[in-house]
Design goal:
Order of helices and strands: EEHEHHHEEEHHHHHEEHEH
Structural class: alpha+beta
Helix content: 40-55%
Low-confidence stretches: none
Radius of gyration: 20 Å
Number of strands: 9
Distance between the termini: 29 Å
Length: 271
């Protein structure tokens, strides 16, 4: 999506990593941003980069995405930290190297490191870049918390769904395939039935979205979303939702905002 948290990186010379602001209930050492920065520094030292060449950093974040909403906020922040500090510290790690580091932080960090719409297989680390229509999305954020561990360990979670391979999944035009993914019976989120049963607020949000399109759950939630072909239509539905749910609009993009900014920084440095 073209909406995300905003992050600001300042290089320091004391080799320390600091992150602001602090988040209630989240220790610094458990913050994925902090963990990503330290992981990158350790990797640089391991391959022989002199300590004098590996600087510290102060990282400030303005949160726009709901925490624990299942929209990849924490994972994308970790990935952005890796690609930004790799550039700022002039480490020259390749995209593959950064993605491998990212996988140590979480299975969905590599897709944000690569920063392109992708078909994911394996645990989410086997990625094939694809081009998708840049549709508009309405994302609702129900007032509840979903424990990923609880859902993944639930005894009634479907675990035998046949794997979908990329070749049959993407036959034909992208516009047709994205429609099949959202409206067809072959593609679904196996977590959705369990989460909807355990969290009435989420079931209510998905059922409400179903009036206007196909309501879906993001990962294990708690956010839900619906795709629209135009900003105008999405905005109309958001206006209807405001009295009932928290939500926001975002446009789907094939290249992440973080990669767009990194490319701009590289062009600026070359000039």
């Amino acid at each position: 999506l073209d909406r995300g948290d905003e992050m600001f990186f300042t290089q320091t010379n004391d080799l320390k990593i600091t992150v602001s602001p602090e988040f209630d209930g989240l220790k610094l050492e458990d913050n994925l941003i902090y963990k990503a920065a330290n992981l990158l520094k350790e990797a640089a030292l391991l391959i022989g980069t002199k300590p004098a060449n590996v600087f510290g950093a102060h990282i400030h974040i303005d949160k726009h995405l709901p925490m624990g909403g299942g929209v990849g906020g924490g994972s994308s922040n970790a990935a952005t930290t890796l690609i930004a500090l790799n550039h700022i510290w002039q480490l020259d790690f390749s995209e593959d190297q950064l993605a491998k580091l990212g996988a140590k932080l979480g299975a969905d960090v590599p897709v944000f490191v690569r920063g392109h719409s992708a078909w994911a297989e394996g645990i989410g680390d086997e990625l094939t870049s694809i081009e998708l229509p840049e549709s508009w999305y309405l994302i609702l954020s129900p007032e509840c918390h979903v424990s990923t561990i609880e859902i993944f360990s639930h005894e009634r979670l479907t675990r035998d769904t046949p794997k979908q391979r990329i070749a049959p999944a993407l036959q034909g035009q992208a516009e047709t395939n994205i429609s099949n993914m959202f409206y067809g019976d072959d593609y679904r989120n196996d977590c959705e039935a369990i989460v909807s049963e355990l969290k009435p607020e989420i079931r209510k949000a998905i059922n409400w979205l179903n009036q206007y399109g196909q309501g879906r759950l993001t990962g294990t939630g708690a956010c839900c979303f619906c795709r629209f072909d135009s900003e105008e239509k999405a905005q109309q539905v958001l206006n209807e939702a405001k009295s009932k749910f928290k939500g926001f609009l975002a446009k789907g993009v094939n290249l992440s905002p973080a990669l767009q900014r990194l490319n701009e920084a590289k062009r600026f440095a070359m000039n």
